[in-house]
């Protein structure tokens, strides 16, 4: 009997496994993925998401790691993420605007089905949109300029990590990253759309025979950071959700640079000009 019952037990187990897989596949996408949301928590004492990962941006050879995987353990979130209908990001577009060495990186975002859900969510939660943009070596963000945006309440907060030496050329500088905190309120959204401008500046690129140096931007990291409005300071936790936006359009910045073939001519003219000016000053001092 035991030998005969073996195939029957195996068949029953396979049937049960097939039924469970089919049931999971028949669930709506929002329910099927509800238990797999990329959500973590961080204490309110930590102001920025990227402050613990500065080394990621200071080493030119370092590979960028997913910031969602580097946040505090999701065990802190127990009981904080239940039955919360979170806004979802349905579209993300990004483009460089302007001319010359000073341009703006413009983010255009659209939240899906947010007319009622977003209002209900913001009624009970303080929520911030967090954008972390990794800048190539040839581009930098001026932290002093960005602080003026905070003072004018364009951004809730902002920080620059990595190489913040604004005087270094591209060949001597390391990568940096900008973290922007944007306060989400019904008044800041227009028909579920949000536009954010990030001012950027070009560093002096290395010499190239083509006359231009091209720097490309990778996809940004976007997070939704929220907490209940009645949260007490002694047990304050931010819930952090990766918005998992689709890869944004690649943004490339072509920056004019000097031609190495002209070094001798330019150096000679510069030296002669400096010599003539110096002699003129000395003669003027002796005569007058």
UniProtKB/TrEMBL annotation:
UniProt organism field: Urochloa decumbens
Protein name: Phosphatidylinositol-glycan biosynthesis class X protein
Pathway linked to the protein: Glycolipid biosynthesis; glycosylphosphatidylinositol-anchor biosynthesis
Gene Ontology BP term (one): GPI anchor biosynthetic process
Transmembrane domains' residue ranges: 263-287
Compartment(s) of residence: Endoplasmic reticulum membrane
Primary location recorded for the protein, binned into one broad class: endoplasmic reticulum
Membrane topology (UniProt): Single-pass membrane protein
């Amino acid at each position: 009997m035991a030998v005969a019952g073996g195939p029957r037990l195996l068949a029953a187990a396979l049937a049960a496994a097939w039924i469970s897989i089919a049931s999971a596949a028949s669930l709506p996408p929002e329910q099927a993925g509800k238990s797999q949301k990329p959500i973590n928590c961080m204490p309110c004492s930590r102001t920025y998401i990227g402050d613990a990962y500065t080394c990621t941006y200071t080493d030119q050879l370092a590979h960028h790691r997913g910031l969602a995987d580097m946040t505090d353990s999701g065990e802190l979130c127990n009981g904080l993420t239940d039955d919360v209908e979170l806004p979802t990001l349905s579209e993300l577009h990004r483009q460089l605007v302007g001319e010359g060495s000073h341009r703006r990186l413009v983010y255009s975002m659209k939240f899906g089905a947010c007319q009622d859900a977003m209002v209900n969510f913001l009624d009970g939660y303080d929520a911030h949109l967090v954008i972390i943009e990794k800048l190539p070596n040839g581009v930098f963000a001026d932290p002093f300029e960005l602080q003026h945006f905070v003072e004018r309440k364009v951004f809730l907060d902002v920080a620059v990590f990595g190489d913040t030496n604004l005087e270094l050329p591209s060949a001597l500088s390391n990568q940096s990253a900008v973290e922007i905190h944007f306060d989400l309120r019904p008044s800041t959204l227009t028909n579920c759309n949000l536009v954010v401008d990030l001012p950027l500046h070009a560093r002096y690129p290395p010499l190239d025979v083509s006359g231009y140096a091209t720097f490309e931007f990778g996809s940004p990291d976007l997070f939704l950071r929220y907490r209940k409005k009645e949260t007490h300071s002694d047990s304050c936790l931010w819930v952090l959700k990766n918005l998992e936006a689709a890869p944004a359009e690649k943004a490339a910045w072509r920056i004019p640079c000097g031609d190495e073939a002209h070094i001798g001519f330019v150096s000679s003219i510069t030296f002669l000009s400096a010599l003539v000016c110096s002699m003129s000053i000395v003669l003027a001092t002796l005569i007058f």
